[in-house]
Amino acid sequence: MIAFGLRRLAQSMAVIVVMSLLVFAGVHAIGNPVDILINPQADQNEIARATTALGLDLPLAEQYWRFLKGTATGDLGNSFVYNVPAIGLILERMPATLELAAAAMLIALVFGIPLGLWAGVAPRSAAGRAISAGSILGFSLPTFWVGLLLILVFSVWLGWLPTAGRGPTTDLLGIPVSFLSADGLRHLLLPAANLALFNLSLVARLARSGAREALQQDYVRFARSKGLAEGRVVGVHVLRNVLVPVVAVTGVQFGSVIAFAVVTETIFAWPGMGKLLIDSINVLDRPVIVGYLCVVVALFVAINLAVDLLSAWLDPRVRVRAGM
Amino acid sequence: MRGALALLALLALAAALAPWIAPQNPYDLAQLQLIDSRLPPLAHTSADAIRWLGTDDQGRDMLSAILYGLRTSLVVGLASTVLAFAIGATAGLAAAWFGGWIDALAMRLADLQLSFPSILIALVFLAILGQGLDKIIAAIVLVQWATYARAARAAALVERSKEYVEAAVALAVPDSRILFRHLLPNCLPPLLVLAAVQMAAAITLEATLSFLGLGLPITEPSLGLLVANGFNYLLSGAYWISFFPGVALLLAVVAVNLAADRLRDALDPRARR
Lengths: 324, 273
Fold this sequence. Notes:
The complex is a heterodimer. Chain A is about 75% helix and about 0% strand. Chain A is mostly helical. Chain B contains ten helices and two strands, in the order ααββαααααααα.
């Protein structure tokens, strides 16, 4: 297990090094770094001064080293717009994004698992068919358009929920969160539901196929022949078999939920890092774009590592397959 | 299921014939009347022409705008699918055939690409390079080639040990000929199904990026950009400006997905009922 963990950790470090090279190449080779890193409104003297200050006149290898050192110490330059360190700006917005992503994942699991079980236990019933068809629709619906429909129905027509923003936040261990106040919850509901839709469909389908498979197994037949109530057979014996793939997929999907939060945050004006990214792209605030990329790469590598270690710990076969 | 193919054909035909069947050229400013702006569906213009799906903020007929937008969306989806298929399948076949460092390099690159969500990679790529039809196609190819590479490699690894390949090697057929004339045709069925599924994903991705303002410029509006434009008027109740382009997008994606299912059934004898 320790050998597996170390090997996986080394792979993660390699990914980070490769990504840092790609980001560096993107900034310094594809584009002109002077355009990318220095405010376009600066005059000739300022550009010359900033070029020296940023070390853009140094050899490429030395520049890469400086970039690595800057990234490692969290110094990616100041935002052109806010004139504060870009990385601080992103970290400040991170709790909002993580809260939204966690709420979306929670909705997907709380509704997806029971719906999938239902469809798996009674695949030919009207409800089972409706759930299967609904999950296919959930995959095909473009997220951004569903967001607009949610706003149209629940905010514009019914007037039940607010259209934008995060609402009041409450501090929980020094981190501002929305879900502790009723008004904050009302603001959270629509964006979280929008972001949850894709994974809700995914979880429901996984649970459905997992349940159908488990129902064929001998241990379920045995549980039934023992005379256990159907609720207990499904709720305990089948559910346990369904949970393994669902947990694995939930971990992997959490990263993509954070990425897709960019879309949902833009629609609902949710003040997270995704909206910050789009705003920064629109005004060409490049230090923030590079900073977002670094933060998200680190986040992703950490999530993937955690999921792999967790699944290796839960399921010894993974370690064997990985050659450890 | 046959309905899905009919729907897809109908959408493709409508997109191809857009300049001839659309009630107006939505991007000829001379044909737009501001007095007709934001008309609801089924309303009549000042010149007494009916606007089935209403008009937008500049008096543009939404039905015409959707037909032109569908054209752009389908062209982007098709072009990026063909390119990603060509690049990915070549990389996958070469990885399986040559092995060694080519295999290692191609597969590690694919791993790297697949460990990040497609939307994130495309977003960052477009943020660095800017907008444009060629750039968005390049971005979609960048996020989709790896799936084809993996599938092609897996299929080719099975095929390469078969006798017809051995025979070709014994006859000293050049590598490139073995790859494209012997291996590729035999690896094709799963790749074609994948291509259909990926095309639906490409259309959605393009629409999402255009919605975020990173895809196509305003001069070549796709369905995603039409939805984004209508978003500004949604809160004042003019729902049709974003609603109908979204419906068109949904129909296109569902039609391609269902066609992919049908293709899978047709190509895989085991799945036939």
